[in-house]
Specification:
Elements: H1 7-21, H2 29-52, H3 55-58, H4 64-71, H5 76-89, H6 93-101, H7 106-119, H8 128-137, H9 140-154, H10 156-167, E1 171-176, E2 182-187, H11 190-203, H12 215-232, E3 248-249, H13 252-255, E4 264-266, E5 270-272, H14 274-282, E6 285-286, E7 289-292, E8 295-299, E9 303-304, H15 308-318, E10 333-337, E11 352-356, H16 357-364, E12 369-373, E13 376-380, E14 388-389
Antiparallel strand pairs: 1-2, 3-4, 4-5, 6-9, 7-8, 10-11, 12-13, 13-14
Bound molecules: zinc ion (2 copies).
């Protein structure tokens, strides 16, 4: 056997060294994979054999998986997978032979072995020949789905218990990094994950042929858009009698972008650029706070930068984002001041245009200009080489 006494393993190591030293080797990928998978099967049997002999206990390791993970530079999950396969192959000689001969790959074998292990006392329902046939016929992805269904049919209670155990692993961690960006890390249950993925992907389509964002960037923007939309709609539960919102604090000088003015603060902690400040100020509720020697002496009434009647009229006029080729609809668009109100622009219809979250950012932070020409809007990119004409109301763009 491989590894026994070192002789067979030494020969294998020498053969591998010779193979790797060959510079112009012409190797068929599939044949190479067969060899690797067959060796993976041999590793599984070897690991299982070590576990049965209690080799891991010698070094004080509680589990064979942690011992193999440490000694073989693997994750504990990978080591546990190999041990499971090694154990189950003892009962599945036909599957083991199919792996050794390259009829099926290691991943398929692993799926079958885990299914048999999960069935526990109902493992007699596992028909080796039938399952081997499925492994030969289906891709790894579809075999996994089929095994999930088989598991549910054979053992609905066990399936439920496992799903509930998996549910306890759900988590979401959102942390702010030193540069102000946020890191999101999490695991969602199948239903919430599918809902989140579906909702984000519906917002992550390219917004026109010139949308150069990567899919990952569009998904990140979609997540921000979802959160902003939920807050804008005012449908989220109040906390301490106040609707969820983000606070932006600035001075009059900062708002006018005067030389030497201090930057605006997001949530009283993070300085943000003047361009971002202007974008947020296009669509906000503003409260004036008067200070004297750092003491608050007056707080004005909260007013929106665009009044409710004007916003209604703007939504009827523009019906969605007016950036060329963008099909974001009215509920997902916000008013932009063509001349910002801090520089004397007015919050009335001629000075306003609806833009989606992405194109509003493109105009402020991306340096695009919006020029009103009669009833049309022209959008000029920062290099001013291309002039695009916006679609008129009622015209939708279709990719
Ligand atoms: Zn704006
Ligand atoms: Zn848009």
């Amino acid at each position: 056997m491989l590894g026994e006494g070192g002789t067979a393993l030494s020969k294998l190591q020498a053969a591998v060294r010779e193979f790797l030293a060959c510079e112009d080797r012409q190797v068929d990928n599939k044949e190479l994979r067969v060899v690797i998978d067959a060796l993976e099967g041999a590793f599984c049997k070897n690991a299982r054999s070590s576990e049965q002999r209690g080799q891991h206990l010698v070094g004080g390791n509680i589990t064979a998986a942690s011992w193999i993970a440490r000694t073989c530079a693997m994750s504990v999950n990978s080591a546990a997978d190999r041990l499971c396969v090694g154990e189950q192959l003892e009962w599945l000689p036909t599957v083991a032979a199919a792996l050794a001969s390259g009829e099926i790959g290691y991943q398929s074998v692993s799926i079958l072995c885990h299914l048999r292990e999960q069935l526990g006392e109902k493992r007699d329902l596992f028909d080796e020949d039938e399952m081997l046939g499925y492994a030969q016929k289906y891709s790894v992805f579809h075999l996994r789905q089929l095994c999930n269904v088989a598991r549910h049919v054979a053992d609905p209670e066990g399936f439920f218990d496992e799903a509930e155990e998996n549910f306890t692993r759900r988590r979401l961690h959102i942390s702010q990094m030193p540069d102000g960006m946020y890191r999101v890390d999490g695991v969602l249950d199948p239903v919430s994950g599918a809902a989140f993925k579906t909702a984000a992907e519906s917002l992550a389509k390219r917004l026109g042929p010139d949308d150069e964002r990567s899919h990952k960037q569009r998904m990140a923007d979609a997540t921000g858009e979802l959160a902003n939309h939920a807050m804008d709609k005012g449908a989220l539960p109040r906390r301490h009698s106040v609707r969820p919102h983000i606070n932006l604090t600035t001075t009059l000088e900062g708002l006018k972008n005067e030389l030497g003015a201090p930057p605006a603060d997001l949530e009283l902690s993070l300085p943000i650029s003047t361009r971002t400040l202007e974008r947020i100020a296009c669509v906000c509720t503003m409260s004036r706070v008067l200070l004297a020697d750092s003491m608050v002496i007056d707080v004005g009434r909260a007013t929106r930068t665009v009044s409710a009647p004007t916003l209604r009229a703007l939504r009827v006029r523009d019906r969605g984002c007016r950036f060329p080729a963008c099909d974001r609809q009215v509920d997902w668009s916000n008013p932009h001041h063509i001349i910002h109100w801090a520089r004397g622009g007015r919050g009335n219809l001629p000075n306003l245009v609806l833009l989606c979250y992405y194109h509003h950012r493109l105009v402020h932070e991306g340096g695009w200009q919006v020029i009103k020409s009669g009833r049309e809007f022209r959008f000029l990119p920062p290099d001013r080489l291309v002039v695009k004409r916006a679609r008129g109301p009622g015209m939708r763009w279709a990719a």
